[in-house]
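Q: For a teaching session next week I want to show students how multiple molecules come together into a single three-dimensional assembly. I've collected the sequence lines for a complex. Could you give me the predicted structure tokens for the whole thing so I can convert them for display?
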Amino acid sequence: MTEHYPVLILLVPLFGALLATLLGSERQVACWFTALIALGGSSILAIGNICALLASAEGELRYRMGGWNENSGYEVGIELRIDMLAALVVAAVVIVGFINTIFAKTRVTGEMREKAAFFYALNQLLIVGLCGIVMTNDAFNLYVLIEITSLTSYALIAMGNRRAALSSFNYIIMGTIGASFYLLGVGYLYIKTGTLNIDDIHTVLQSGNLWGDTSITIAFILIMLGLWTKMALFPLHGWLPNAYSYAPGVVGSFMAPLMTKVMVYVMLRIMLWLFGGEYIYSSGLVWGELVIWMSIIAIVAGSFLALARTDIKKMLTYLIVAEVGYMVGGAWLANGAGLAGSMYHILSDAAMTFCLFLAAAIVILRTGDHRLTAFNGLFRSMPLTMIGFTVGGLSMIGLPPTCGFFSKWYLISGGIEAGHWSYVAALLFSSLVNAVIFFRIFERAYFGNLKGVADEQLPDDGDCAPLLTLERVPFSMLIPLFIAGASVLLVGIYNNTLVSWLKAAMPPL
Amino acid sequence: MEFLAAGFIEDHIVPKFNYWIYVILMMIGLYAMITKNNLIKKLIGMAVFQTAIILFYVSIGVKEESGIPILSHGQHHAIVDEGRPSEEVITKEKFANPLPHVLMLTAIVVGVSTLGLALAITQRIYISFNTLEEDEILDQLRRGGHD
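A: Of course. Below is the structure for the complete assembly, covering every listed component.
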């Protein structure tokens, strides 16, 4: 049974999505329950997967789709490959999806109305796509799964108001350019190597010593450009802020933590497993230096743009742009600490972005204000939500024992080891800007005058009818926020274990 | 004018004309996606862009003097090239590589669904803004402020 966990993680939400569509929006609670069961089941399977991986001696699990015989001599079947990094990212993806489904229950009625069933179906499909991206070992399947993920996210974003539809359109244009560049790069690799299996491509590149070949260089550039567009690295980030901030609250809250992080994972996968460290970090290539400078610009620009925003969600989305810079820079530092920091930051950034977006969604819903003025006096009127927001904010700044501190620690020590002081300076600068951003909000929340949060100010989309719960925020929203906040702390406290697992999964540099 | 020298055309354009065509089509698509003001024209650019890549893949699967990879009636269903008379031997030189073509079936499906979704979203944009020109939409948003 254990060996089938990887494929079951994909199949359970896939059938859940079908079931949710069949049930239809009239049976909204049933749809919600389906999504909850499917994603909950997947979460348990993903944790089981980590346990199976810890127990196995090889440090990786391979699943051949359809039981293809591995003794056929060459790789023709489609394969799933799970090492520790993949298992942890998959677990993060499905658990965020599961918790967000709990969070979505009361909001979907208000934000989606008659489209509730489609929301639950697309939500699960998106999780399937993301898990598939993380686990697949086939370069072309990776493209198809990236497109499945993107298509569902275009549709989910467009469920918002008319601004959301326009942002979704821009995202389609940018996303298609990115995915097509990736596909083109895979084509060049296929011409040269004659295979699509990521491990086989690596073997052929190595045995044929194809590193210096122009086609391989072109393929590398095309794939990286495509992935950078998809992960919104600074000059290519144009689609992200609008898409995530105009998307419905429940959509933004799980797309923002997952999409860009999974794309960073794909970049690491392509860099280290497909091309291999000896090519990426070889002295003949000037990319390393160039990309680190791009990431420095991304960090600085993202922080400044976030500082300039008065809209809560816009501010958070620009922080994501800066965080993408952290991870890309760390991945190109060409040393173990930087890579471990980059991998660990995928997990920790998912946790803290999730926490902040949940808290922001609750604040915007409760106050009916999407600007920073919404936070005035909130420590008095909604202390529990603000505790969640504070944990997320402190993690963004990088205070121990939150995970943000430890990921910055690894990234900075990687930067020092590589002698890249400008990258170190950019990280510290971004910490300072984040401190300004979040302490400005905390100050408002402590000392700001509570605006008259009168009932007529609440958005009248049905979900703010008197709820007989704590501070009138339903428990189904507070509990996910607390779980997210707790995970920020737990990922931070157990950083040693996580990083040692990740380092074991890393291929030798 | 080295570009126009006859040798350049013979060496670089004629043997690689499929690549030249796909690059030109791709650039037309990219140009339309980035510069056109009308949303439908952007989508047409996107379709051209995706088709160019499909063309690239299809052209790399083609070999000279090769047929479709299907065994005709009477041929033995075994791919062995030893100990048989030469006309019966099934070698890989006789067949085009089907894999890139099969991959493109999937890519076409992806392209069609992206285009369909994009058109549906364009329709929603048209219903709420009553125009498909990007500058007019942005103008409306600027005048209307946040909504």
